[in-house]
Write a structure and sequence with these properties.
Layout (H helix, E strand, L loop, with lengths): L2 H17 L3 H12 L4 H7 L6 H40 L18 H15 L3 E2 L5 E3 H4 L24 E3 L5 H10 L4 E10 L11 E11 L4 H16 L5 E8 L2 E10 L16 E10 L1 H6 L8 E8 H9 L12 H5 L6
Parallel strand pairs: 1-4
Antiparallel strand pairs: 2-3, 4-5, 5-9, 6-7, 7-8, 8-9
This protein binds 3,4-dihydroxyphenylalanine.
The site of 3,4-dihydroxyphenylalanine has 11 residues, from strand 8 and strand 9.
Length: 345
């Protein structure tokens, strides 16, 4: 064994390390030069056969070379890792000085804005939200609300029929019957926002599809004062603290007495203007005390329980609130209309 030989091994290791450009290649070199079966290591194992004075010198030399090769590989490994990281960082850089693509914020349809506002007002008063089917039976849409087959009130509520006894609900009032039956005689305080349908020729004030929020409260000792206070609070929260309400006698088959509720016109403060047609008031909803027949048919004893109910047209409230002149605009998806209700970013 000669120094010459060791130097050659060292030189070729250094050359190969210098030329290698991947960590896989370095791994191979580690095996080639430093593993047990490498030339260098086999030289180490022959040291024992050398005379003692040469053994020491050769041993030192071999270990030195081994350490040098190992550290050269390590250095190269670090260098490669750094280069790879730099390459990755470069390829993944984001130019933050580039102007971004504008994300267009959509506008919420004012219908939903108002629906949520009305719902929140009643939730804050302790009401819960109930639900019912849009495809309804004649039984729930009419009969259980005290509107029998030949009742003239049906004339105003013609609708789309699926069959003789199944139809698209004409109002959210059938949810009253569903809720009462499910509550099995317990007190009730619910609202139900939902879609409703009627056979109608569409124009600025009529739509074959619209939406209502039904309200129903049933308990012992409920009187018309509760109805008035509840709706007054709703009107003030929805249309402003200055609004007054007035109850006008009306007729609905499922309430007795029945009322129509007007608010003072926001435009003229009750003095009379073109918006309120000179009356100073604008009608916003219908309601009344739940008819004893309705209580009875749906499982409540009218001698023990009483209740009030109301129905609010959601589009009507939105129209008044935003001064919208055509109910069809809620459904036409005209961007120019919806843009006006876009949330400010
Ligand atoms: N269902 C009625 C309609 O669509 C509105 C209504 C009036 C609902 C009086 C009620 C009520 O709950 O008590 O015309």
């Amino acid at each position: 064994m000669e120094n010459q030989n060791i130097n050659e091994i060292y030189q070729s290791a250094m050359d190969e390390i210098g030329e290698s450009s991947t960590s896989e290649k370095l791994q191979e070199l580690k095996i080639k030069f430093l593993a047990k079966k490498s030339v260098l290591m086999s030289l180490l194992s022959t040291l024992g056969s050398l005379p003692p004075e040469e053994r020491k010198e050769m041993g030192q030399k071999l270990n030195e070379v081994k350490a040098k090769i190992a550290s050269a590989i390590e250095e190269k490994e670090n260098q490669l890792r750094k280069e790879e990281l730099e390459k990755k960082l470069k390829s993944e850089t984001i130019d933050i000085s580039l102007p971004s693509k504008r994300v267009e914020l959509g506008g919420q349809n004012p219908f939903y804005v108002v629906k949520d506002e009305i719902t929140d007002i009643f939730l804050n008063m302790g009401f819960e939200v109930a639900d019912g089917p849009e495809v309804e039976t004649d039984l729930y849409n009419f009969e259980l609300l005290n509107i029998p087959k030949d009742h003239p009130a049906r004339d105003m509520q013609d609708t789309f029929y699926i069959s003789d006894s199944v139809l698209l609900r004409t109002h959210t009032s059938p949810v009253q019957a569903h809720t009462m039956q499910a509550a099995e005689g317990k007190p009730i305080r619910i609202i139900c926002p939902g879609k409703t349908y009627r056979r109608d020729d569409d124009d600025a004030t009529h739509s074959h599809q619209f939406a209502q929020i039904e309200g129903l409260v049933i308990d012992k000792d409920i009187n018309i004062g509760h109805l008035k206070a509840t709706l007054e609070l709703f009107a003030k929260k929805m249309f402003g603290e200055k609004r007054e309400i007035r109850l006008r006698p009306s007729y609905f088959p499922f309430t007795e007495p029945s009322v129509e509720v007007d608010i003072t016109c926001a435009n003229c403060n009750g003095k009379g203007c073109s918006m309120c047609k000179g009356t100073g008031y604008i009608e916003i909803l219908g309601g009344g005390m739940v008819h004893p027949n309705v209580l009875k048919m749906n499982g409540y004893d009218p001698d023990v329980y009483s209740g009030f109910a109301f129905g609010i047209g959601i589009e009507r409230v939105a129209i008044l609130r935003y001064g919208i002149d055509d109910i069809r605009k809620f459904y036409q998806n005209d961007i120019r209309f919806l843009r006006q209700y876009r949330k400010k970013a």
